[in-house]
Input
Amino acid sequence: MKRLIQKLTEWFLLAVNVGSYNPALIISFAAMIIHRSLFWIVIFIGAIGLHFAVQITIDSAISIRNLKAAKREFLDVETGFSLKGVDDATFFNTKDFPHILDNRRKLKEIFGNAEFIEAQANTPWLFKAHPLRVFIASKDAGGIIGGAKAYVNPRGPSLVFLAKQPDLLNATQRFVLLHELEHVSVRGAAHLTFGYGCRIWGLVGILFICSAASSWIHWVAVTVYSVEWLLKCFYVMPIMREVIADNGALLKLANEHEQRMVGSDLVEVFRDHKQALRPVPPNPKVPSFRKSGELMWRINYLEGFLKRLSPAGAAPLYFYQMTSLRFGIPYFLLFVHLAYVTRQPSVWGLGVLLTSLAVFIVAAYQVTKNAIPVNRDVNDYPGQPASPSISADGIAVDKS
Output
């Protein structure tokens, strides 16, 4: 019973979290259950299609952008970097990359071994390559600022470049590495995708809510949600991505002593950085609003993290696990209420949804097609040593 309650709670929190980003999905699902209308079933199917079409488009666009940046900054000969592949077995955790490994396992089960082998030959970066490629990057003049840099790639191997071998890193340098690894983990990749996706899902959702609004209370709620959507998608989400990476990296440090030491050092560094951002005559340049906000959020989170460290070494929960209840439930209840009072959806609301779906189906196809040559080019770069955590067919080895 306890496990069932836990599972139901997880599903509810998932619905709340997704609903705060994608109102049309929750409204159409709730209306389909409440009214049992064919019209609402069509809308719900369209909302699901739009959700995944947007996600595929963004994943492929992120892949193209980040791999081109990695080539321009590290992989191309002109950069002057000498790269050496690293066996990542010392810090690779298959739980951080299930978005690739689990999909491979499922596809192999669905299509069979022959089709899976053919897919590996056609797109090896997606069906065979290691989900994470790590390089030591060195050059005569200069190096990697900060000691590590990561490039998320939802369509194939993510790339991490280090200034030195992982076993030579001190606690602070390990934090930097773990921070970058958190960005390329399933949590970091999903947060990046949702950070861009919510801009589209939210806009379509706002138009869809407007089509269902029938009282002044609904219009007030739409206005509040619209303002919060703008702040969340264009200000909070990029900042939260760094806070989440800080939290994940701190939790993976060796012990409470390292957590406390690194956390305290980071607070001082971020305070100094925030102080340096203040306009100083004769150069009264106003600093980036987002950058100042990012430093403030990271300082506040780290101070809270340090306060919650107990003498026994218990660490706080992952920050991303605490966001759904705080921001999602009021909107989730609003969307269910709108579904309840809207027996028949408007034609123009349906038109907005289906038009958006058609646009992003085309976009998903085109952008994914453009991502193939970029991934192929990067995949042909000399590889890293084979990892014992990944089998020859690109699926995680079961160590249990």
Summary: The first strand starts at residue 82 and ends at 86. The longest helix spans residues 38-75. The radius of gyration is 23 Å. Residues 317-322 have pLDDT under 50 and may be disordered.
